[in-house]
Write a structure and sequence with these properties.
The complex is a heterodimer of chains A (566) and B (161). In chain A, strand 6, helix 7 and strand 7 form a beta-alpha-beta unit. Chain A folds into 3 domains: 166 residues, Thiamin diphosphate (ThDP)-binding fold, Pyr/PP domains (Rossmann fold); 171 residues, Rossmann fold (3-Layer(aba) Sandwich); 170 residues, Rossmann fold (3-Layer(aba) Sandwich). Chain A is built from 22 helices and 20 strands. In chain A, 38% of the residues lie in helices and 16% in strands. Chain A is globular, with a radius of gyration of 24 Å. Chain B folds into 2 domains: 77 residues, ACT domain (Alpha-Beta Plaits, 2-Layer Sandwich); 72 residues, 2-Layer Sandwich (Alpha-Beta Plaits). In chain B, a hairpin with a 5-residue loop joins strand 2 and strand 3. Classes of the chains: A alpha/beta (566), B alpha+beta (161). The interface between A and B is medium-sized, with 19 and 19 residues. The structure holds thiamine diphosphate. The site of thiamine diphosphate has 19 residues of chain A, from helix 17 and helix 20.
């Protein structure tokens, strides 16, 4: 084969990696790449802001499990992408971000649109590269995909100097990526598995505490098997929602700051906490000393740094969640003196306690006959989508209500910025998700504040015919911050009143989308029905109770049993 | 407690800033840091001295290991090891102190590497405690300048019978 250009080689490499859709925005430094892409079958989705490109690639990845790809130009294009990259990093989402860079002879000269993006993104990527030799171009991109999707996944950035991309090269044959210094541990140690299983069999009050790692490793079936086999109640983190069916009788819902009363009490009272693909984040644990303080802890995670970082664990298991759970299920299948009915009987008092908690303090809210309650909107969205929609969220109260009241029965259906809490995430992520599944209902549950952060992506949705639905829970406040001010700052609403917001219905129209509004409770169902029946991008503007709060709530730094209730 | 951690890493651009960025970003402290090539020009050795309780040190070693370019991390404090640091000291050496300076240097098996009318520059190599001792003794005489390499360390060979 003769020589091809660097940009053609990159496109070819992307095709080899199975990439069909990328999200990006052009500029001087990536002109060659865009030119080469135009003659390929890879679809480039032209967003309206680079942050949107990275979030869209991230949303695409979360719903498919594939590596999401974003292409940004140098300088401001790259820096605009940083929030998206950090968002993906915090939630361990596999992305490859290709950025253009000024030609090599200009690097370091403060050239036009030069920025040290490798330096800037070092702390918020799993790894990153500035390609400096032509022969490294293709192997580096291959390595980037390999790193992004293996081990604990994460975003990898490759910075591409323009002169390299414009040069000619012989395309190197694909060989397996070999990285002696990067060897994630996938297979659990059998001794640890046996120890963990024995502990589980001895437990009277076990709890499974499940995080996003289970979704990332596609281990939901194995997890469900384990929970059912041993009759163990399950609680999920925000990132773990969908890893176990939310409507299952063993599900206690989400735990943590806005978790259910039952889940938080169960974790406080359990004698064995089995953490799977979760990382003891402060929003989950509250005051560390009081978290699961009466229990032994088993922790399964592929990232050794997550283990015993915040909470000392008794049985660490470094492994891919799927492998570890499979090994545990096998262990129980082979263990002769194991009897499910006995297990169930042994856990009976525990389940009685759990049912008491739920009976006493179920997840609830005070409904109204006239005013729209946000929780009611979510319940109706759940009802009319039969729980099958892909839900993305913005950040704040909208996100928490979505997490609490939409019951996710499948993994990869709840797409939310957990670790970084990035307002403006939901709309571009919804576009990415819709690109992956054009026939699914995709709904961005939004706040009136957050939606304005990447509202420009409505144009992207329109350009590519993405019928995403946006449900704005419009309280004319930066609601979550207002809630903290209400509770902890004497109701002094400093800079949280959104006194001027656009007319979202007119705004939708201006973008060529459909705008619908509900101001009274009885308008909610018709609006939802119409939106779901509309084959267009739709904004639903729900004027909700302005000062509704998210409850339960564990005040920051308090023990998770110290919940403020409805 | 003080820990000396020895790290083998790929000799690639930016790798040192990955290590230092990790320490600063996660609030770990660096008491000293030394890095240079090994026999294999593609691999560097880095010795970092840090302080922290067991949890912190465990995190430091795990986090270092997590860096893609890091090949091996050993907390050699847990083992038998030798550590050395070199220090260059410029010290007042007027007529009445010259002999004293030379005597001290001699005791510590140091070398004079530069001489001027009013000062000596001396080179001393040793463990952290030896370096501290020599500085304590020379300080009253008048240290004008001091440059230290930071600690390098190596595990002792396993004992064979
Ligand atoms: C980019 C960004 N800036 C600021 C914040 C801090 N913050 C967290 S929630 C919130 C309010 C969100 O308001 P809105 O989108 O209207 O949602 P609501 O809480 O009212 O549902 C703010 C400002 C954030 N999470 N992200």
């Amino acid at each position: 084969m003769g020589k091809i250009t660097g940009s053609q080689a990159i496109v070819k490499c992307l095709q080899e990696e199975g990439v069909k859709t990328i999200f990006g925005y052009p500029g001087g430094a990536v002109l060659d790449l865009y030119d080469a892409l135009m003659s390929s079958d890879i679809k480039n989705v032209l967003v309206r802001h680079e942050q949107g490109a990275v979030h869209a690639a991230d949303g695409f990845s979360r719903v498919t499990g594939e590596v999401g790809v974003a292409l940004l130009t140098s300088g401001p294009g790259a820096t605009n992408g940083v929030t998206g990259i950090a968002t993906a990093y915090m939630d361990s989402i596999p992305l490859v971000i290709l950025t253009g860079q000024v030609p090599q002879p200009l690097i370091g000269n403060d050239a036009f649109q030069e920025v040290d993006i490798v330096g800037i993104t070092r702390p918020c990527t799993k790894h990153n590269y500035l390609v400096s030799k032509l022969e490294d171009l293709v192997p580096t991109i291959r390595e980037a995909f390999h790193i992004a999707k293996t081990g604990r996944p994460g975003p990898v950035l490759v910075d591409l100097p323009k002169d390299l991309v414009a040069s000619s090269l012989n395309y190197p044959v694909k060989t397996p990526v070999q990285m002696p210094s990067y060897q994630p541990t996938y297979v659990p140690h059998p001794v640890q598995i046996a120890k963990a299983c024995r502990l589980i069999m001895a437990a009277k009050r076990p709890v499974l505490y499940v995080g996003g790692g289970v979704i990332l490793s596609d281990a939901n079936a194995e997890l469900t098997e384990l929970a059912q086999k041993l009759n163990i109640p399950v609680t999920m983190t925000l990132m773990g929602l969908g890893a176990f069916p939310g409507t299952h009788e063993l599900s206690m819902g989400m735990l943590g700051m806005h978790g259910t009363y039952t889940a938080n009490m169960a974790v406080a009272e359990c004698d064995l906490l089995i953490a799977v693909g979760s990382r003891f984040d402060d929003r989950v644990t509250g005051k560390l000393e009081d978290f699961a303080s009466k229990s032994k802890i088993i922790h399964i995670d592929i990232d050794p740094t997550s283990i015993s970082k915040n909470v000392k664990v008794d049985i660490p298991i470094v492994a891919d969640c799927k492998n570890a759970l499979t090994s545990m299920n096998l262990w129980f299948d082979k263990e002769s003196n194991f009897d499910l009915s006995e297990e169930a009987a042994r856990h009976k008092p525990w389940f009685d306690t759990i049912s008491d908690w739920t009976a006493k303090h179920p997840l609830s809210y005070t409904d109204s006959d006239t005013i729209i309650k946000p929780q009611y909107v979510i319940e109706k969205l759940l009802e009319f989508t039969k729980g099958e929609a892909i839900i993305t969220t913005e950040v704040g109260q909208n996100q928490m209500w979505a997490a609490q009241f939409y019951k996710f029965n499948q993994p990869r259906h709840f797409v939310t910025s957990g670790g970084l809490g990035t307002m403006g995430y939901g709309l571009p992520a919804a576009i990415g998700a819709q690109m992956a599944f054009p026939d699914k209902t995709v709904i961005d549950i939004a706040g009136d504040g957050s939606i304005q952060m990447n509202i420009q992506e409505l144009a992207t949705a329109k350009q590519y015919g993405c019928p995403v639905k946006i449900a704005i829970l419009n309280n004319s406040f930066l609601g979550m911050v207002r809630q903290w001010q209400e509770l902890f700052y004497d109701r002094r609403y400093a800079s949280t009143t959104m006194d001027v917001t656009p007319d979202f219905v007119d705004l939708a129209k201006a973008f060529g989308a459909v705008g619908l509004r509900a101001t009274k409770k009885d308008e909610v169902i018709p609006v939802i029905k119409e939106a779901l029946a509309t084959d267009n991008t739709v904004i639903m503007d729900f004027k909700i109770e302005k000062e509704e709060g998210v409850y339960p709530m564990v005040p920051a730094g308090k023990a998770t049993t110290e919940m403020l209730l409805v | 407690m003080k820990h000396t951690i020895s790290v083998l890493l790929q000799n690639k651009p930016g790798v040192l800033s990955r290590v230092t960025g990790l320490f600063s970003g996660r609030g770990f402290n660096i008491e000293s840091l030394c890095v240079a090539q090994t026999l294999d020009p593609d691999v560097s050795n880095l010795t970092v001295v840090s302080r922290g309780d067991d949890n912190v040190i465990e995190q430091i070693t795990k986090q270092l290991h997590k860096l893609i370019d890091v090949i091996k991390v050993v907390d050699i404090t847990e083992k038998e090891y030798v550590e050395r640091e070199m220090v260059l000291i410029r010290i007042n050496a007027e007529a009445h102190t010259r002999a004293e300076v030379l005597r001290v240097i001699d005791i510590f098996r140091g070398k004079v590497v530069d001489v001027s009318a009013k000062s000596y520059a001396v080179e001393i190599t040793g463990s952290a405690s030896k370096i501290k001792a020599v500085i304590d003794i020379l300080r009253p005489i008048g240290i004008k300048e001091i440059v230290r390499t930071g600690i390098i360390a190596m595990s002792r060979a396993a004992k064979t019978k």
